[in-house]
Automatic annotation (TrEMBL), chain A:
This is Sodium ABC transporter permease. It comes from Anaerobacillus arseniciselenatis. The chain crosses the membrane at residues 20-38, 188-213, 234-260, 280-303, 315-334, 340-358, 370-392. Its main location: membrane. InterPro entries: ABC-2_transporter_component, ABC2_TM.
UniProtKB/TrEMBL annotation, chain B:
GO terms for molecular function: ATP binding; ATP hydrolysis activity. Keywords: ATP-binding, Nucleotide-binding, Transport. Belongs to the ABC transporter superfamily. This is Sodium ABC transporter ATP-binding protein. SMART domains: AAA (SM00382). The keyword Transport applies. Signal peptide: none annotated. InterPro entries: AAA+_ATPase (IPR003593), ABC_transporter-like_ATP-bd (IPR003439), ABC_transporter_ATP-binding (IPR050763), DrrA1/2-like_C (IPR025302), P-loop_NTPase (IPR027417).
Amino acid sequence: MNNFWITVAHTAGKRLKSKAFLWSTIIMSVIAIGLMNVENIANTFTGSDKDDEKAQSTIAVISDIENAEITELLSSYDEGEFNYVKYTDGSLEDAKEAVESSEYDYLLALSGETVNLEVEFYGAGTDFMLAQQVRTEVQRMKETVVTNELGLNEQELAMIYSPINFSELPLSENGAVQTEESHMQSYWMVYGIVFAIYMIIILFGSMIATEVATEKSSRVMELIVSSVNPVTQMFGKITGIGLSGIVNIGVILVAAYVGYIISGATYLDTMLRDVIDLSLIGYAVLLVVLGYLLYGGVAAMLGALVSRAEEVNQALQPLIFLAMIAFFISMFGLNVPDATFITVLSYIPFFTPQLLFLRMGMTPVATWEIVVIITILVISVILINLLAARIYKGGVLMYGKFSFKGGIKQALRFSKKEN
Amino acid sequence: MTLEINSIKKKFDEHVAVDGISLKVGKGEMFGLLGANGAGKTTTFRMILGLLDPTEGSVTWGGERITYKRTHLVGYLPEERGLFPKLTVKEQLLYLMRLKGMKKPEIIKEMRTWLERFQVPEYENKKVEELSKGNQQKIQFMAAVLHKPELLILDEPFSGLDPVNSDMLKKAVLDLQQSGTTIVFSSHQMSNVEALCEDLIMLKRGRPVLQGSLKEIKRSYGMKSISIRADYKLDFLQSIPGVLSLEETKDGAIVKVENEKVGEEVFRMISEKGFVRKFEIEEPSLHDIFIDKVGGDADE
């Protein structure tokens, strides 16, 4: 056990002291702070201009309807974001030309009757949000005109516009219901964490494999395994790299939090208080750790099968593909989290970390199911690591050209217990 | 504690790497393991260290197998040298020796003593990749002996060293032996084996072909070498039955014969022919015995 901790300290220490680690952590932290403040930074450059631009947007209104009331109302309406100007200097074609020559920003053509109003909105490079706004404003003017014509008083108007009370309730007492807002927020949170699991598996997996292969190729491995049991050493390495990873991620998270404080935003507080179930964060950590151990064991084994550091990538490919498949399935599953194939695939250990989290974050999952899936995952972690340890034990003594089948066979032969 | 190997055999599927090696090395003895490349030396060492399990037979040291509980009593210099290229001498030794159960101050103290002894005290904070091969080997040797092991396994300790460093290392090995360390080493430089060990075993394709004390082996070894100096051609000696080879030198020849009887016959033939300046029957060198026994298998 003592040698285990010596290996952990050596592995983590070597990594933490390396310049590459230091710089990548600093750069990632700066990026994290920056991302948290991206809005503020953007505003510093363009913010004020943007507001002016909106206020100055002028829309030429050309009307073909008998009742000029809507046009009047629009041009006198100054609470909105646009400045509506009545265009009377010519035909629709003239108006279009006027917009093209930048006299106006957009063109609004009204025709038909007040009740069946036909509205055409012309503009180049406009985004759909803008048209929506214009539409809402024109609609409001129409409603005002029509209600006026009908001679409704304020009370009657208030009755029409008073909002209904709509609330969503779960069927069972503890069931969950998604509001649109919570759906979007959990969507992004699940997206973020699934992506994080994917990155952690790939990054730290290849770190483990590279570390093992480097020790093998420099031939220091034989000396080490003459002092410490290779299995102890393998788990020491996985733990050591895991710890340095925790430091790495921890620093970046702290940086992101500092960036969040600086930005002065409050969405995180609301999210943590209202939207995110804290137990879900607990499950995320558990799944990250189990996923790391599962993929880490395989990565260590693959690292032990190669003789040169250059061959690591080739050996790691299947593992990376596996993680990528899990990632793409999750991306697809974000929109259909309760599809049968997502449910089924979430039972497969190599997909569990990402898919189970996806399911738990997006839809209610029965407790018994969570217990079963996590038990399967834990058992697989143990079995895979036992197998990986055997292959590792033989693999570290083995040199030659890399091949999966031959390599694994030879490694098992080397580590064979004979008497 | 005595190292005892009882007829070990190691099979990798159908391939037999080591077959039927038995030996005993007492405390403070130095034992040589000879053989061509691929003769099974490294596999034997790995079995002694417990890195590989023998298919048959057993390896015990003081009556017990060597497991990871006792590795702090064992030092190992692998044939394939390897250290952490990016770590300094101090960093590596700290890690490797901690694995052997040593504490930091002790490691530093021993390291400085050895660096001093090898006349390279300035290397303490140098990265290993900056050192020459010979100097890397000194560090590698230190990694095998810093923790004062009771059993020391040296796989080709002198290969790739210049004569000065080779002598320095040889002296260190002898000193360790005198202080009671049991040493098993392999080499294909026969002169080193002759200079260092009392007992040896010679392997050919995993099997022992010769075993015993160096003196015994040489004395009882049938083949003799005759050194002759004469003023006439000596190649006619080749026709005598029992002459194994004849190598002409600039003023005579070296004749290898099966045994002393054949040597007498050679002497008779020469005396019939004429005067000789020198006629000497010598014991064969280990080199000759090696070539004779391992023969075409040596691929060096």
